[in-house]
Design goal:
The structure holds three protein chains of three kinds. Chain A is mainly α. Chain A is globular and about 55 Å long. In chain C, strand 2 and strand 3 form a beta hairpin. Classes of the chains: A mainly alpha, B alpha/beta, C alpha+beta.
């Protein structure tokens, strides 16, 4: 029974955070492009979606995850975090990579133009989210070296995550190539519930035996 | 029989359904003719700005670039105004080949080159401008190289470099509609912003028109922003204009005829390259003649090859007959050889068989004519130069590139890549000449009375309660002018008929054009310019009662060397009517020998 | 439709400046480029080539009837 539940949970996670965004991606009426460009788009989308999933692969989601060992959940949380934070850190560069293979504006120029369009709030939010993500990644990697207790770190990590996901979701919804009504709804729902779970974890006393 | 009927009715049904679907799809863009003006202009909302320079360069293409740079370097206070973006509007962004005459490398001497061009052009070229282009090409290309022109398929950066280094003020997205003449000489220009409700008055001692060529916004050629604006505003203040009877004979693909990017293969994505001496007699109206005689599909083995099994048609000098495989004139009259290298070349072809030689793809399937309708051979139409300094008959008014009727190549394409080189060379010459002129004359003030008239003329379409949409009038004009049997394969009765229509548009529609925003205001002024151009084209074509180079008359199929060793100059008479007169080949307007 | 789609636009305005025929404008509210005058598109692809984020998709069909010299 427990094993079955574990399997269900895993399937549910994959369906909700990988299957659903890919499905919505194929539904959107954005014209398909070269294989490379579409691959980069998909990778970025999945990476962001997995960042949303991180809120559910955490202690704050202990009710749903009670059948799993928290240690194993944390292992996944870390692995997914490191992989997709890396992908997203490179995401601004990935956007101009196809310029290596086609005529047009130079990739360096495109990149600079992109990250300096400060009059668009979507870009500013993206830059903030990128910095927050960098801090999230570094402080997770170097947690043991930091002169703070684990408890303080957890609170810090949680607050940073919330700040990140708010900026990042907003950025994605404003500027995402494949953003439409359905995709927006998916991201908002996933982010809102995730944040809610985390906040509940902080502000409501959790029964020890849960 | 029964089956036929069935098929027919099914086809009819599909046709009707497609029609309905089409109408629904294009719903918002269906061209309505006459209607109320949705948003009439509130005159109080209009802003004004006055700017001043010694030399005002109008246009930001190849000619405008060099005009501004050289006028600045000659000590003048320069300003550039363009209706588009520097290096990204007009035909310049699509010109991928530039000719150089390198005396170290070429087997032919400069004299031989000029003589060969003159032979191909059957006397229609101005040999002084032919020589000037070749002589200066190397130096201009060296400067372009320094600015990074050959490093990217996009030219804005390379063009911005010298302009930025010199701090030359650059005003983009401002459409100039009027040249201003006071006391017999240039005093400035006026126009409007396409972004804001704003009018600009430029005070200038000298103006260089680098406004490019133009056409009837044809499909398949990137000239839908070019409507002979410079020519028409200069004509309005008394400048002489030439070359309206000649035609550029580019054809296009029937499938998606309007898609000029697709029509030119990967050409637009290439970095520019160099071309050397290679003289032809190309891309007049041979193909148009074949299409006229035999219908479509035209034998599309290339210009000059199509005539094999058709009797008569445009004359081609014996030494320029084609025997070998067809060659194409790639690009808007430019590069033939594939300009070398570039990231652009690595892009996978987007379907179809795209040739590697830099030309447009071989026409797959059926062709259609009139890709560049309304445009003459590069540099054969425009302002009449009174000397080798790109100077017009209006003191202070200069023109360079396609805005100058220099006849550098003649009335037929003679040297591939020379169009872009010629624009660079003439821009530089005009820039220096205009700087010299402006140092010698005093500034002339723009009178209040002229200002009022110009304001009124610019804003008129915005102030009408109702009127014809520019798009609809343009399309009507296209329907009159573009057919093969009107501007390409000409005969008197049809041209007279077309002229009657055009005069109707001029007298009854031009004064009733409406505009609800600044974009439409630009369309309205462009439409006006096209109507006047059409009138010029028909009148010059009617006057030239012979066939030569890219002008072909069915009723006068032969060359008439007795009467027609002459160019046709057009100017506005005292009464405001269009006047035409001959200027013998090999002379300047004052009658002196070249 | 000529210029068919603009997706993932960051509102830098390069395409607006670049379009020779003034087809694209920036929407002040959304801060994104929009296809404002599709009928005037000459299908030259300059906007696409200048776009830093490759947001523009262009189809070869013209949205208004095409007039040619011979069919």
């Amino acid at each position: 029974m427990e094993n079955k539940l574990k399997t269900y949970n895993r399937i549910a996670a994959v369906v909700a955070f990988i299957g659903l965004p890919i499905f919505l991606w194929t539904l959107s009426d954005v014209p398909s492009r070269t294989f490379l460009k579409d691959a980069i788009s998909l990778l970025t989308l999945i990476a962001f979606s997995c960042m949303l999933m991180q809120f559910y692969l955490a202690r704050s989601n202990n009710k749903l995850l009670k059948v799993h060992r928290m240690g194993s959940v944390m292992k996944w949380h870390k692995a997914i975090g490191y992989v997709f934070v890396t992908v997203l850190l490179f995401h601004p560069l990935l956007i101009v990579v196809p310029r290596y293979f086609e005529a047009g504006i130079e990739r360096e120029e495109a990149f600079v133009r992109m990250i300096t369009t400060f009059d668009n709030p979507g870009i500013v939010l993206g830059l903030i989210a990128w910095c927050l993500m960098l801090i999230l990644g570094l402080t997770s990697m170097l947690r043991k070296q930091l002169p703070i207790t684990y408890k303080t770190w957890r609170i810090f990590h949680g607050i940073l995550s919330i700040a990140f996901i708010v900026c990042a979701s907003w950025h994605v919804i404003m500027l995402g190539r494949h953003i439409d009504m359905a995709m927006t709804l998916f991201m908002l729902t996933a982010a809102t519930i995730g944040i809610f779970l985390l906040l509940r974890n902080y502000f409501l006393p959790t029964p020890k035996n849960a | 029989m029964k089956r036929d009927k069935k098929t027919l009715s099914r086809r009819q049904f599909i046709g009707a359904a497609a029609g309905v679907a089409g109408a629904l799809m294009v719903g918002p863009t269906v061209l309505n003719g006459w209607s109320e003006n949705m948003k009439k202009l509130n005159e109080a909302d209009v802003a004004y700005e006055d700017l001043e320079a010694d030399v005002l360069v109008i246009g930001g293409g190849m000619a405008g670039l060099f005009a501004a740079v050289k006028a600045n370097d000659a000590g003048a206070k320069v300003m550039i105004v363009s209706k588009g973006r520097l290096g990204a509007s007009g035909q310049t962004p699509f010109a991928k080949g530039i000719f150089i005459y390198d005396p170290q490398k070429e087997k032919v001497s400069l004299d031989e080159f000029v003589n060969s061009v003159s032979a191909s052009a059957i006397g229609t070229n101005n040999a002084v401008y032919t020589r000037q282009m070749a002589e200066h090409s190397l130096a201009r290309v060296a400067e372009l190289r320094e600015w990074g022109f050959f490093d990217s398929p996009l030219y804005n950066n390379a063009f911005s470099k010298p302009i930025g280094q010199r701090n030359i003020p650059l005003i983009e997205r401002v459409t100039i509609t009027h040249l201003i003449k006071e006391k017999g000489k240039i005093a400035g220009a006026a126009g409007f912003s396409v972004d804001y409700q704003k009018l600009y008055f430029f005070k200038a001692k000298s103006v260089i028109l680098c406004t490019g060529a133009g056409g009837f916004k044809p499909n398949g050629f990137p000239i839908c922003d070019l409507t002979h604006d410079g020519t028409i505003m200069a004509y309005d203040i008394g400048a002489m204009v030439t070359g309206k009877e000649w035609n550029d004979g580019h054809a296009g693909k029937a499938e998606n005829a309007a898609a000029c990017f697709d029509g030119w293969g990967t050409m637009f994505e290439r970095k520019p390259g160099l071309t050397g001496v290679e003289i032809h007699h190309d891309l007049g109206v041979d193909m148009n003649y074949v299409a006229y005689k035999t219908g479509n599909p035209v034998n599309t083995r290339g210009p000059g090859m199509a005539t094999a099994n058709v009797v008569g048609g445009p004359y081609r000098p014996a030494e320029f007959q084609r025997n070998g495989p067809p060659e194409r004139e790639p690009g808007p009259g430019l590069a033939k050889r594939a300009p070398s290298g570039g990231r652009g070349d690595r892009r996978p072809p987007r379907g179809g068989d795209i040739p590697k030689d830099g030309g447009p793809p071989p026409m797959m399937g059926t062709s259609v004519g009139g890709s560049s309708a309304g445009m003459a051979i590069h540099k054969s139409e425009g302002l009449v130069p009174i000397n080798d300094q790109c100077e017009s008959n209006i003191p202070g008014l200069y023109a360079a590139g396609d805005a100058l009727g220099s006849y550098m190549a003649g009335a037929i394409y003679t040297q591939v890549g020379s169009s872009l080189a010629g624009s660079a060379v003439q821009g530089a010459i005009a820039g220096e000449a205009a700087a010299g002129y402006s140092s010698r004359v005093e500034k002339v003030e723009i009178s209040e009375s002229q200002r009022k008239i110009i304001q009124k003329e610019i804003l008129a379409p915005l102030k009408r309660d109702a009127g014809y949409s520019p798009a609809w009038v343009t399309q009507t004009l296209q329907g009159i002018m573009i057919p093969n049997f009107i501007i390409y394969i000409k005969k008197e009765n049809l041209m007279r008929a077309a002229l009657t229509y055009v005069e109707e548009l001029r007298d009854h529609h031009m004064p009733m054009l409406r505009a609800s925003d600044m974009h439409e205001l630009r369309l309205a002024h462009e439409t006006r310019n096209m109507i006047i151009s059409a009138e010029m084209k028909l009148k010059a074509s009617l006057m030239r009662t012979e066939s030569r180079c890219s002008h072909y008359r069915l009723d006068y199929p032969d060359m008439d060397n007795e009467n027609w060793q002459a160019w046709i100059n057009i100017y506005k008479g005292e009464d405001g009517n269009m006047q035409l007169k001959k200027q013998p080949f090999g002379t300047w307007p004052d009658g002196s020998e070249l | 439709m000529s210029i068919e789609n603009i997706n993932g636009c960051i509102g830098c305005g390069t395409c607006v400046a670049t379009c020779p025929t003034d087809v694209i404008r920036l929407n002040k509210q959304t801060k994104k480029a929009e296809i404002k005058y599709p009928a005037d598109c000459q299908i030259c692809h300059l906007c696409r080539m200048y776009c830093p984020v490759d947001a523009i998709t262009i189809s070869p069909e013209k949205s208004i009837p095409v007039i040619v010299s011979w069919g």
